[in-house]
Specification:
- The chain is of the alpha+beta class.
- It folds into two domains: 231 residues, Rossmann fold; 112 residues, RNA polymerase II/Efflux pump adaptor protein, barrel-sandwich hybrid domain (OB fold (Dihydrolipoamide Acetyltransferase, E2P)).
- It is built from eight helices and 20 strands.
- Strands 6-7-8-3-9-10 form a six-stranded mixed beta sheet, with helices on both faces.
- Helix 2 packs parallel to helix 4 and helix 3 packs across helix 4.
- The structure holds adenosine-5'-diphosphate (ADP) and magnesium ion.
- Keywords: ATP-binding, Cell membrane, Membrane, Nucleotide-binding, Translocase, Transport.
């Protein structure tokens, strides 16, 4: 039973940089929690502050209900995996894995059985006598994970653990990590700048910018309803369309955009108000405009180009001079020059303040 409660946390470096800038966050017991944000937004600093490797300047960190804000790292019950793994090159895999136990003076016989068991859990059987330099990147990454797990922390902190692996290994390691976390049920905070990784792995995602939390939610929520254009831009493998628009009439339920219109829940936004209209390529429907009109709000345009994404295609449509991206099944990919009509369901059309 080990959740993490963070309240009003700030971490200020001696040079005055507020790398973590007033953060409230609760990670539930057993949760796989992702911290997502661009490089320099404070992810590593937050993780290191939870671990006790940086001092909190303001606020508190509680682990498993106990205030650990002023505790030294070794007494917090956390295990951290660093981005560069930080393995000891002169020690064997077995010695690396059990190093934290050796520090705690656990007997050699116990250490070697822990090494055997953990190596089994992390598919490192047969490699226990090797040095880190004799392992592949993926194996080194698993040794770093094994060392963290063998230390029997209550909380696992992972700083971009997959970022040094090549694309294929990364996907394998991602699946492996997800299964391992499920099996162990250990509370895990996973730092990444890769939105696809966060969406794939996490129970919940916190999106950070400039040391602050911008959005907290399930992968589904953060993907479908980003709270502002920063989050909207950051999440999704194809970028969200962010278009200049205006409210047609406050009770019309529509916004004018790119020479046409889309349905939107305009609520109390006044008539004529300028907004940024956000709609994901995946949520737009493209129909080939033959004859007749589409009922309800729609945008007309002409296909410019289509990119193959594997089983789907990202089609760029020129709508009165604005390019709009739409994903369609690969077999429905229209030819360049085809006149088309774009529509979207109201709940998929998001309105943002112009300046957000
Ligand atoms: P991320 O992990 O999201 O890339 P970091 O936590 O590493 O971000 O850095 C957050 C901010 O703090 C950046 O502006 C970075 O330059 C600054 N920073 C990181 N480490 C230090 C340090 N030891 N001293 C001063 N500033 C630092
Ligand atoms: Mg970092």
């Amino acid at each position: 039973m080990a959740g993490i409660d963070i309240e009003g946390l700030a971490t200020v470096y001696p040079n005055g940089v507020r790398a973590v800038d007033g953060l409230d966050l609760t990670v539930a017991d057993g949760e796989f929690f992702a911290l997502l944000g661009p490089s320099g937004c404070g992810k590593t600093t937050l993780l290191r502050t939870i671990a006790g490797l940086e001092n909190a300047s303001e606020g508190s960190v509680r682990i498993d209900g106990a205030d650990v804000t002023r505790l030294e790292p070794g007494k917090r019950g956390v295990a951290m995996v660093f981005q560069d793994y930080a393995l000891f090159p002169h020690m064997s895999v077995s010695e690396n894995i059990t190093y934290p136990l050796k520090v705690r003076r656990v007997a050699a016989a116990t250490r070697s059985s822990v090494a055997e068991r953990t190596a089994g859990e992390l598919s490192l059987q047969g490699l226990l006598e090797r040095r880190p330099g004799q392992l592949s990147g993926g194996q080194q990454q698993r040794v770093a994970l094994a060392r963290a797990i063998a230390s029997e922390g209550k909380v696992l902190l992972l700083d971009e653990p997959l970022s040094n692996l090549d694309a294929r290994l990364r996907l394998e390691a991602r699946t492996f990590l997800k299964k391992l976390q499920r099996d162990l049920g250990i509370t895990t905070v996973f730092v990444t700048h890769d939105q696809a990784e966060a969406l794939a792995l996490a129970d919940r995602i916190a999106v950070m910018q400039s040391g602050q939390l911008r959005q907290l939610g399930s992968p589904r929520e953060v993907f479908a309803r980003p709270v502002n254009t920063f989050v909207a831009n950051f999440i999704g493998s194809t970028p969200m369309n962010l278009l200049d628009g205006a409210v047609v009439a406050s009770d019309s339920g529509a916004v004018s955009v790119a020479g046409g219109s889309l349905p939107a829940s305009t609520g109390s936004v006044p008539t004529g108000a300028e907004v940024t209209v956000g709609v994901r390529p995946e949520y737009l429907t493209l129909s080939v405009a033959s004859a007749g009109d589409v009922a309800g709000p729609a945008i007309r345009g002409e296909v410019v180009v289509a990119e193959n994404l594997g089983t789907s295609s990202l089609v760029s449509v020129d709508c009165a001079g604005t390019l709009i991206g739409v994903t369609v099944p690969e077999e429905d990919e229209p030819e360049p020059g085809t006149p088309v009509v774009l529509t979207a369901p109201e709940q998929r059309v998001l309105l943002y303040d112009k300046e957000s």
